[in-house]
């Protein structure tokens, strides 16, 4: 039962991304091209999502716990650090270059569009590179602290 | 890079957004998880346990079904128009992967889930990546390409 709801959640997300135009790199780049062929559509995707998710989350959190589980698993870190801001700045550059973000490229993998496949493969490569680099940094820091 | 003009689609985009919001709330209500594409994908590739892997696999299967459902109902996949070459797809993908890992999230995790929780980290992250995406497109189209 739980898996069915998770599947529906993913399906709604995949439909929304596709219908909203979020997985169309031309539309994404045009959204950011305020000085050129501006297409403000994606503000409606973001706005529409928040219109449901903000009050929806509030109602869900008021209930105290998820239907299948004992507690909500939400990030508790509240620190505004260089890693967050630097990482997000870098993400924006990549998003601007390719016109795809992770949530947009994953659902449309099923179209087998070659650009989507190439972007997502590179995305996974980037995630693995960053995870590897983070591990090395953490190991170095531990070694320095131990010394 | 070339410029492909796109039509303003307020209704389709609004409906798409509402569906994304519904999926986001449903996952939190049922399983208590944030619907962040970066986190779901990263956890799918490097799972912490088999039970933690299962729901991510189902989630991704659901996501992949979206465009297939659209194909069944409309006879065509969603429109994907790519104004940039393959090299930019590869470079962009690598940069996105590195950025979202260090930044702990992307448009869905920070931009939808985090902002809905009024998380100061997510609000900061979203403003940051929207700004740098805008600057990047401006430079590519009006400084280099202009």
TrEMBL record, chain A:
Question: Which InterPro entries does the entry mention?
Answer: DUF6691
A Pfam family reported for this protein in Swiss-Prot or TrEMBL: DUF6691
Q: What organism is listed for this UniProt entry?
A: Maritimibacter harenae
Tree of life domain: Bacteria
Q: Which residues cross the membrane?
A: 41-61, 82-110, 116-134
Which keywords does this Swiss-Prot/TrEMBL entry list? Answer: Membrane, Transmembrane, Transmembrane helix
> Under which name does UniProt file this protein?
YeeE/YedE family protein
UniProtKB/TrEMBL annotation, chain B:
* Gene Ontology CC terms, in alphabetical order: plasma membrane
Record carries keyword Oxidoreductase: no
Which residue ranges run through the membrane? 12-33, 53-75, 87-103, 123-140
Specify one Pfam family: Sulf_transp
State the compartments where it is located: Cell inner membrane
Main subcellular location of this protein, as a coarse class: membrane
Tell me what topology the record assigns in the membrane.
Multi-pass membrane protein
- Give the keywords, sorted: Cell inner membrane, Cell membrane, Membrane, Transmembrane, Transmembrane helix, Transport
PANTHER family from the UniProt entry: INNER MEMBRANE PROTEIN YEDE, SULPHUR TRANSPORT DOMAIN-CONTAINING PROTEIN
The UniProt entry's sequence similarity note says: Belongs to the TsuA/YedE (TC 9.B.102) family.
User: This protein is called what?
Assistant: YeeE/YedE family protein
Biological source species: Maritimibacter harenae
